[in-house]
Amino acid sequence: MKKFLQEFKEFALKGNVLDLAVGVIIGAAFKDIVTSLTDNFINPILQFITAGDPIEKAEIGVYASNFVTAIINFIIMAFILFCIVKAINKMMTIGKKKEEPAAPTTKKCPFCMSEIAIEATRCPHCTSVIEEEKEEAAV
Ligand SMILES: [Zn+2]
């Protein structure tokens, strides 16, 4: 189960999957604008042409506000999506940083070649005093 979740995480965080999801969501949101355009502009005009129903001023106001609402919804949705994508990208870079090897915490004693703490000034194995400057010059 843990491996499954790990695989899913890798799958979900892949850039192309994210792009696809963004495309689908934007597409769905854009469809709402097109639907609104049809409902609030094209249909009333068709109705006027075919049935001769006069479009009243009050109705035009309602249609216009419906359409503006659809556009505002789209902008809000796109903004939220942008924030989510930004957050996920940040998550991905944090994940990548973790994969990088950690800074070395040990060094080799120049006298006995044992691994010792990087900040050690005296070797715990051979008790030699390690001079920091020499160590840096050697590197
Ligand atoms: Zn040593």
How would you sum up this structure, described in words?
This protein has four helices and two strands. Strands 1-2 form a two-stranded antiparallel sheet. It has two domains: 2-99; 106-138, no CATH class. The protein is mainly alpha-helical and 139 residues long. The structure holds zinc ion.
**Over all CA atoms, what is the radius of gyration?**
32 Å
Average pLDDT value? 82
Count of discrete domains: 2
With helices defined by DSSP (H or I, 4 residues minimum), what is the helix count? 4
Helix content range: over 70%
Give helix and strand order, one letter per element, not per position. Answer: HHHEEH
Percentage of residues in strands:
under 5%
Sheet with the most strands: spatial strand order: 1-2
- Beta-strand segment tally: 2
**Distinct bound molecules:** zinc ion
Summarize the structure.
By secondary structure, the chain is mainly α. Helices cover 71% and strands 4% of the residues. It contains 4 helices and 2 strands, in the order H-H-H-E-E-H.
Lay out the secondary structure.
Blueprint: H1 2-13, H2 15-51, H3 57-99, E1 106-108, E2 115-117, H4 132-138
Antiparallel strand pairs: 1-2
Helix pairs in contact: 2-3
